[in-house]
Specification:
Length: 468
């Protein structure tokens, strides 16, 4: 084969390279990332399942709730053994991690038990603690034995920091939905104190009292799930600090963790100060932190490591448009939060008008990513995704307006669900916008002529998105 034929078959320097599992470059793996990701993933699935079963308008029997929670542990063990190189051992360890995390809920159960069995409270606490860890570990291991029979061909080449980040993203999106129900049912002040709950330590507030009042259920379960998000973000930050080589990526999860802590303080202060303004800030800031989590998931992905940027005259326009869309989305989410808490007709009209502007920007960015840069897989997929998400957002927005009851305290269930889905999808739209912005700045480099047209004093080309 001649040198000329080799050059003809070689891709251009600015073409992105995609790899198969066999040709993909290997990255350093910190032992334990699979266990942590699967363990916290199991706990997230268990907690969300319990929440859905015990919703005041669901009230599934206790046996069904417990069965579903155990099923989540079995399923988590199956997934862990299928995708981890450790096999069923990963499932066993992940189950134990999940059992430790679930201890946050054990205190509330023991508090009810101690009322009837005072003398057995201490030994019961020990048995429940060990039992939680052992039961989760055994159940996950059983699922793992089955999952090990179906090993994934990619199990040796998975970036578990990326998986861990995705779990945090999904858990936080659920938390945003739970918070949306708190607002929809006007339960934000149902638990009047913070950080305690009716004088109890938050993790010892009896489940029996929590179930007696729907408002207390919505607000207190929101606090509990927020604590799980906090511990998950902390575990991710510690793991990333040990597993990552890029210094700026090590900083990002710690910034997210600080954001989660600030969000908790905002939520608590909103209760103690009975401030609607703080409630709006609390709602908007949650979605900003969620967007940062989505970016964290992107920068820990394999494509972010391996794909190379390309130079294009359209890069400057795409970078500017995505940034404009990101700022417009933040303004729109602020208006949406104001509508939910203030119910002012004038704000609703501004919110609707801004929705039109945002939709036009989304279509512009989405079509450009999908059409002009369709050969770049991340941009093509995000272009299609953001257009689909904004379409769904418009549909949910119209439905929310139709069902809107203004200042009605007893919101119908269908209205509460639709407005909450509208809020969750808005957060998803912001996260998709953040991802499109991140990938645009990562993959598209402006040509010297296009960058100099922006400002005569600027450099001949904008710097690429940092990768090291």
């Amino acid at each position: 084969m001649t040198a000329q034929s080799v050059a003809e078959k070689s891709p251009p320097a600015d073409t992105l390279q995609y790899h198969t599992p066999e040709t993909a470059p290997q990255f350093p793996h910190l032992r334990g990332g699979d266990v942590l990701a699967c363990g916290f993933g199991i706990s997230a699935a268990v907690w969300v399942s319990a929440y859905l079963c015990r919703l005041p308008f669901v009230q599934a029997p206790g046996q069904v709730t417990v069965a579903l929670m155990i099923a989540m542990v079995l399923l988590g063990g199956f997934i862990a053994a299928r995708f981890s190189a450790k096999g069923w051992w990963c499932a066993l360890y992940a189950g134990a991690v999940s059992g430790i995390v679930d201890l946050l809920l054990i205190g509330a159960i023991l508090h009810d038990y101690a009322k009837e069995h005072h003398d057995a409270a201490v030994p019961t606490a020990l048995s429940w603690t060990l039992g939680s860890i052992l039961l989760n570990a055994v159940a996950a291991a059983i699922g793992g034995l089955l999952g090990q029979l179906f090993p994934s061909p990619r199990r040796n080449n998975i970036l578990w920091s990326h998986i861990f980040s995705l779990i945090l993203v999904l858990l936080t999106l659920t938390l945003i939905g739970v918070g949306g129900l708190v607002t929809a049912f006007h339960a934000g002040l149902a638990v009047p104190d913070w950080p305690r709950s009716y004088g109890y330590n938050m993790f010892l507030f009896p489940l029996s009292l929590m179930q007696q009042n729907s408002g207390a259920f919505y607000e207190h379960s929101h606090r509990l799930l927020a604590s799980l998000v906090g511990f998950t973000s902390l575990a991710l930050a510690i793991h990333t600090s040990l597993a990552e080589r890029r210094s700026w990526v090590k900083i990002l999860p710690w910034a997210i963790g600080i954001g989660v802590a600030i969000q908790a303080v905002l939520g608590g202060t909103r209760v103690t100060e009975t401030s609607t303004t703080l409630a709006i800030i609390h709602g908007v800031f949650a979605q900003l932190v969620f967007g940062a989590m989505a970016v964290m998931a992107a920068v820990t992905s394999r494509n972010f490591h391996t794909l190379h940027p390309r130079t294009t005259p359209a890069a400057s326009s795409d970078r500017s448009l995505t940034l404009l869309l990101l700022f417009a989305m933040i303004i729109q989410l602020t208006l949406g939060a104001t509508v939910r808490h203030e119910n002012q007709g004038s704000v609703v009209l501004i919110h609707i008008t801004m929705a039109v502007f945002v939709s036009v920007l989304v279509l512009a960015c989405g079509f450009r990513a999908w059409g002009l840069h369709g050969n770049l897989r991340p941009l093509r997929r995000l272009g299609l995704a953001i257009m689909a998400v904004v379409l769904l957002q418009l549909i949910l927005g119209v439905a929310a307006l139709v069902l809107w009851k203004g200042n009605a305290k007893d919101a119908p269930i269908e209205s509460a669900l639709v407005t909450t889905l509208h809020q969750m999808n808005g957060a998803l739209l912001l996260a998709t916008t953040a991802l499109l912005t991140t990938w645009t700045w990562r993959l598209l480099l402006p040509t010297p002529s296009s960058s100099s047209s922006l400002s005569s004093s600027s450099s001949s080309s904008l710097p690429p998105f940092p990768t090291a």
